[in-house]
Amino acid sequence: MASQEQLAVRRAVRDALTELDPARPVLAACSGGADSLALAAALGWIARRELRPAGGVVIDHGLQQGSAERARQTAALVTGFGLDPVEVVHLQVPERGRGPEGNARVVRYSALDAAGDRYDASAILLGHTLDDQAESVLLGLARGSGPRSLAGMPPVSERYRRPLLGLARETVRAAVPADVKPWEDPHNADPAYARARVRHRVMPVLEAELGPGVAEALSRTAALLRADADALDAWADQALADSEIEVTLVGQETHQAHPDHVSIDIERVAELPRAVRTRVLRRAALEAGSPPSDLTAEHVDAVEALVTQWRGQRGIDLPGPVRAIRTGSILRFTPSR
Questions:
Q1: What is the pLDDT of residues 212-239, one digit of tens each?
Q2: Could you give the C-alpha distances from 94 to 135, 293, 326, in angstroms and in order?
């Protein structure tokens, strides 16, 4: 008989599959840790009873000795849960870029995207829990990266789904089949990693000083902020569309507008609330070719000064490279390569 924890995880996974095409496969991403194993076991149980195609993708980051063998063992476990096909993907994480955590995340999602394409998956399920969400909110708060970061991880993002975000890590781990021993990633306890420090040092202090329920409160905060951020983003998308203009006059010469060049009407942007205006400026820079990972709040603030505090200053150089230049009532974003 299934435990209460297993029933809770199965309900959460089944709810995440409700609106998906039952003829297309669903994939569970699995690292061999307790959370992803509980997810894979629940998906296998549902797939067998609903005759739904479902498979698994086991990710080996190659960061620890013996990880390849461990990935093969995990694949055998996931296959035993009733998932088919189960693919093992071995990754090489670059040493430079966004740091160890960020680099691993980038290559992991790239591999999952490729697997989703190969199998024409309607969804890829991830095993993040309520506690993971709370940690993400605290990390976003520490970085000072705005409401979108504080909104944490969305339950649904394109084909990715996180059915366990409403369940505590303790509940999810108790749902792992009794005869299965999960792998404990040593990085999860390594204080060199920011998330590990939040998990093992910050959260216990908050729970001790503020009382139980901190993780639940942070998760609720994320949901509220996500709704606000979604509304502001939708407003900004429409505002950018309304303020974009075609420009053919550059300096003393007339040119055809380049598809990578973005020109916006400053008067229309200036009258927007700042929360919307900065989003419009960020979107314009991204549309012109500025990479989202490199475009910071400081960059956007400098561009906003061209709109609200212009004293004839020269343009702003942005990552990409992209240059933001004001000419009269027009703000242009142009690739400078």
A1: 999 999 999 999 999 999 999 999 999 9
A2: 25, 16, 39
Residues 6+ apart with CB under 8 A from 288: 260, 261, 262, 320, 322, 333, 334, 335
Instruction: Please name the residues in contact with 279: beta carbons below 8 A apart, sequence gap of 6 or more.
Output: 232, 233, 235, 236, 239
Using alpha carbons only, give the angle 163, 196, 134 rounded to the nearest 5 degrees: 40
The position carrying tokens 């910050």 is 202
pTM score, whole prediction: 0.84
User: What secondary structure does DSSP assign to 200-244, as a single string?
Assistant: IIIHHHHHHHH-S-HHHHHHHHHHHHHHHHHHHHHHHHHHHHHHB
The span from the CA of 268 to the CA of 245, in Å, is 11
Q: What number of other Cβ atoms are within 10 A of residue 321's Cβ?
A: 12
Size of the chain, expressed as the number of residues it contains:
337
User: Looking at residue 254, what is its pLDDT?
Assistant: 38
DSSP 76: H
Task: Read off the tokens for 163.
Answer: 């059915």
What's the pLDDT score for residue 145?
A: 66
Scan for tokens 């509304």, then name that residue.
231
